[in-house]
Amino acid sequence: MMNNHDFEYFDPLDPNQYKAGKIRGPVKQWNVKGRLRVGYHSSINGRLKTRGAVKIGKYCAIGDDVRLIAVSHDPQTINLQIWLQSEIGSKKGGTSRGPIIIGNNVWIGDLVCVMSGVTVGNGAILAAGAVVTKDVEPYSIVAGVPAKHIRYRFSESVRHQLEAIKWWNWDDERIKRNIAFFDCVLEPDRDIRLESLVSG
């Protein structure tokens, strides 16, 4: 029997892996072309369009009408239509700067578009309607077209602690035991020793 430790990422289009990964979302509303892999307990709350290689980490919250486009039209070819290039047997199809990699516990708002080659760090927030063309640092909030850094969610010390704790790798029972940790509300400039809230 498959469990959540069998794969770092799951294929959400495979019903068995979707269930094993405890992934949530309306699969029938997802338009996937290429390789999509999703981490444990992530939620995709509406329409999703992916092209090319896309990885989404654990415990992510993804809004409606999100586009993760790791392959796009090549402006340097005479024909811009990828379908025609494929139909005639051309080796020149779409162009890509690399896969899209979304970290763990990332919140992606409605109508966000992430372009090829982008890596989004753990705990980042992509505000609704953002077009993300560059890497996003962990725990950063970005917004706009093109997306720009607005601020960090937490102090530098807290960000480093969270990256070391890696709570998204805890098993379900440990997460349930750590209510105090998850109930902690932090202002961006507040420092705290997070280990004091963590139980084994």
From TrEMBL:
GO MF annotation terms: acyltransferase activity
Q: Which Pfam families match?
A: Hexapep
Q: Which Gene3D superfamilies match?
A: Hexapeptide repeat proteins (2.160.10.10)
Q: Which UniProt keywords apply?
A: Acyltransferase, Repeat, Transferase
Entry keyword Transferase: yes
Domain of life (superkingdom): Bacteria
CDD domains registered for this protein in UniProt: LbH_XAT
Task: Indicate yes or no for the key word Cytoplasm.
Answer: no
Q: Which SUPFAM superfamilies match?
A: Trimeric LpxA-like enzymes
Name the protein family: Belongs to the transferase hexapeptide repeat family.
Could you identify this protein by its name? Antibiotic acetyltransferase
